[in-house]
Design brief:
Blueprint (H helix, E strand, L loop, with lengths): L1 E4 L2 E4 L4 H10 L11 H5 L14 H13 L3 H6 L1 H4 L3 H11 L6 H18 L5 H6 L5 H13 L3 H4 L11 H8 L8 H9 L8 H32 L1 H14 L12 H7 L5 H4 L43 H18 L10 H15 L4
Antiparallel strand pairs: 1-2
The structure holds protoporphyrin IX containing FE.
Protoporphyrin IX containing FE (HEM) binds next to helix 13 and helix 17.
């Protein structure tokens, strides 16, 4: 579908065939990103990986992140982080004393904690910054994602940009001031002068922000959705639990390579239209993790009906880390607790209540 958004020609890709054309056949032509206001303010004039124009700078930064933060060896070295059992302990205490907890918030906090440990190499609790009168990482990153995702008139009709009618530029300028200066790898890269490009603090901040945004919200959101779907599908929950019992090696810290069943559960995520296309998927709207059993559906971007991590040159460099985190947290949660909907509600009643709620209130519950 071709659209003209203000002055910007836009093509919406909503079939596997079209996705293949754009992400494989003509990947080189479309490998850049538009220069939006978010790229300007949040990504320090496109110095981060996600917003950078396709070219030598992007290639260098991507190589650096892949080697220094996201390689298999590095992911393995984060093993101790993944053994973090605070989530399980807190849930255990709450369930024993029948206290209500917000699992979504807890998963988001865990993801924030893991990302900060990985990127800054330091234990950073979100509340620490609140105490200093600043917003915590969680709030800053979520604000940043919201701002970057909002349709901004200035991106489509550049002349109106200076008026900032939606107030987005003002908010983005305010939110760009996270300054942490202990990121060893990036700093030594900066100091080594080995780079083809001058790297200064703003390059470092932009890349760090990318790594935080890339790792915090994505994995947490996926974990929450998997858990929500499992809650509504007790059969899938049961089978997932059984597999996790058989496969989890608690003594060596739940190595990710042993969790094939969770892999199938996380496979549910997809780009919205392609993932729901009945000509591509049987019972497209249904959560059926078993649909992947016995197929060789690829989630690395080679199968254009299934693109949770994108594809081609700009495909997600953090896929491996994201998958490891999701599998581990979901496996722990499913393995350690028996989950069911509140007050013995059946999944069918829950679905009807949700539909009714959307019809009456005009919003999704
Ligand atoms: C469940 C977890 C994750 C999902 C579903 C996900 C998904 C995606 C998707 C769909 C893209 C866009 C690909 C495209 O434009 O074609 C992307 C890009 C990106 N992701 Fe992820 N991601 C996840 C985890 C991570 C993690 C853990 C990191 C880093 C620590 C990360 C860093 C990035 C970066 C930097 C980009 C931009 C790459 C570029 O433009 O060259 N992601 N991700």
């Amino acid at each position: 579908m071709y659209l003209r958004l203000g002055f910007v020609p836009t093509i919406v890709v909503s079939s596997p065939q079209a996705a293949e054309l754009f992400l494989k056949t003509h990947d080189l032509t479309f490998a850049s990103r538009p220069f939006t206001e978010a790229a300007k303010y949040i990504s320090y004039e496109r110095k981060g990986l996600s917003f950078a124009a396709y070219g030598a700078y992007w290639r260098n930064i991507r190589r650096l992140c892949t080697l220094q933060l996201l390689s298999s060896n590095k992911i393995d070295s984060y093993k101790s982080l993944r053994k973090e059992e605070a989530l399980i302990e807190t849930l255990e205490k709450a369930s024993t004393s029948r206290v209500t907890v917000n699992v979504s918030n807890m998963v988001t906090s865990l993801s924030t904690y893991m990302s900060c440990r990985m990127v800054f190499g330091k234990k950073f609790k979100d509340g620490e910054l609140d105490k200093l009168g600043k917003k915590g990482f969680q709030a800053v990153v979520q604000d940043g994602m919201k701002l970057a995702g909002l349709p901004n008139l200035a991106d489509y009709i550049p002349y109106v940009g200076i008026f900032d009618v939606q107030g987005l530029a003002k908010r983005m300028k305010r939110d760009r001031s996270i300054d942490k200066d202990f990121v060893d790898v990036m700093l030594s890269y900066m100091e080594s002068n080995n780079s083809e490009f001058p790297i200064d603090r703003s390059n470092i901040k932009a890349v760090i922000l990318d790594m935080l945004v890339g790792s915090m919200d994505t994995s947490a959101t996926a974990i929450k959705w998997v858990l929500a779907e499992l809650l509504k599908h007790p059969r899938a929950m049961k089978s997932s639990k059984k597999k996790s019992r058989q496969q989890l090696g608690w003594t060596d810290g739940l190595h990710h390579k042993r969790l094939p069943h969770q892999q199938k559960v996380t496979n549910h995520s997809n780009t919205y239209a392609i993932g729901r296309d009945p000509s591509v998927w049987k019972d497209a709207e249904e959560f059926i993790p078993e649909r992947f059993i016995g197929t060789n559906t690829d989630m690395r971007g080679n199968d254009f009906k299934f693109l949770p991590f994108g594809s081609g040159r700009r495909g997600c460099p953090g896929m491996q880390l994201g998958l490891v985190t999701i599998r581990l947290v979901v496996a722990q949660l499913v393995h350690c607790f028996d989950w069911e909907l509140a007050d013995g509600m059946s999944p069918r009643i829950w679905t009807w209540m949700r539909i009714l709620g959307s019809l009456c209130l005009g919003q999704t519950i």
